[in-house]
Amino acid sequence: AVNTLKPWWPGLFDGDTPRLLACGIRDVLLEDVAQRNIPLSHKKLRRALKAITRSESYLCAMKAGACRYDTEGYVTEHISQEEEVYAAERLDKIRRQNRIKAELQAVLDEQ
């Protein structure tokens, strides 16, 4: 996902680490793709954004007061308390799902 987006929008990253993205960034990126004729399909862009924003490291970084960034790397807003709570709940859900998958795989491996 980083390799898909970073060449076109390096401001979205701190090195190879994705920054917290501004709300509505997908529409901004889609418009930019059209204006600059960037060879990225809507599907590929959407998948890259999902991979980043649903990752454990991204969700862990969503703490109240943390900055959200635009395509140029400028701060646009800050994470709210509600967004932090949402991210924590989402992270718990992902970890629960991963634990269940691991337990199921262990059972299958025993057979």
Report on this model:
The protein has 111 residues and is mainly alpha-helical. It has one domain (2-110): Fertility Inhibition Protein O, Chain: A, Domain 1, CATH 1.10.1710. It is 58% helix and 10% strand. The protein contains 5 helices and 4 strands. It has helices at 2-5, 25-36, 42-53, 56-61, 81-110, and strands at 13-14, 17-18, 67-69, 75-78. The protein has a two-stranded antiparallel sheet with strand order 1-2. Strand 1 and strand 2 form a beta hairpin. The longest helix is centred in the C-terminal third of the chain and has 30 residues, at 81-110. The N and C termini lie far apart (36 Å). One of its GO terms (molecular function) is RNA binding. Residues 1-107 form the ProQ/FinO domain. InterPro entries: ProQ/FinO, ProQ/FinO_sf.
Strands of the biggest beta sheet: in what spatial order?
Answer: 1-2
The total of beta strands comes to: 4
Stretches where pLDDT is under 50 for at least 5 consecutive residues are: none
The CATH superfamily name is ProQ/FinO domain
GO molecular function: RNA binding
Protein name: Fertility inhibition protein FinO
Keywords: RNA-binding
Domain ProQ/FinO: 1-107
Structural topology:
Blueprint: H1 2-5, E1 13-14, E2 17-18, H2 25-36, H3 42-53, H4 56-61, E3 67-69, E4 75-78, H5 81-110
Antiparallel strand pairs: 1-2, 3-4
How is this structure best summarized?
With 111 residues, this protein is mainly α.
